[in-house]
Amino acid sequence: MRKISIILLGLILLIGAAGCSSKEAENGNNAGLQTSNQGSTNNGTDTGTDTSTDTENNTNTSTSAPTPAKETNPAAQASADLQKTTFKVTPQEALDLAATKGKGDVTKLELELENQVYAYKVEMMTDTQKTKVGIRADDKSILENKSEPLDKSKVKIDREQSKIDLTGIIDEKKAMEIATQKVNGNVAEWKIERKNGPTYYEVDVHTASKEHEIKIDAKTGKILSLGEDD
Hints:
By secondary structure, this protein is of the alpha+beta class. Among the domains are: about 80-165, Nuclear Transport Factor 2, Chain: A (Roll); about 165-230, Nuclear Transport Factor 2, Chain: A. It has helices at about 1-65, 90-100, 155-160, 170-180; strands at about 105-115, 115-125, 130-135, 140-150, 185-195, 200-205, 210-215, 225-230. Strand 3 (about 130-135) and strand 4 (about 140-150) form a beta hairpin. The longest helix is centred in the first third of the chain and has 62 residues, at about 1-65. It is globular, with a radius of gyration of 50 Å.
């Protein structure tokens, strides 16, 4: 009987130990599952945060625009003072080039600013026709070349009254100097022509408030007239 009792007691102890082991294993498994779930939750939260940050960065990148380049203002090309300006094409070169484009006597030569470009305008006449040639003062580009018949009342007469005499005349620099000694300002344009009288320069001088037209005898340098516009 004593042996049987000892055996039964041993079995009871074994069964109790097995039960404890099973509960510990179950608790361990539950703890592992909780840890895994917490890990999954944290990973999801982190991933969401990263995605939000990336989205914000992408949004900032897409909405930021480059600074536009400054536009060139054509009005910045202001009128020059011709007395202080030198061009690649001389008046004589303009006359020589115009002679290859038209026929007749030269009746006018002028230098003026037109459409932000300085150009020589040469006018020539035959007995029955007038030709105008525009030449860019910087590179000899032909800007204009057109001919038209004279009115019947001006045939032969206009040519004789208008052709200019270029021999022995003062140059345009001297004419501008004479003009600005009379009126202190900037030379905007000049021309040389004749209207049934002596060949003369007409120099336009601009001051702060007025425009002055000064006519100068092309041979003597004498001032023939002085006019002004507001």
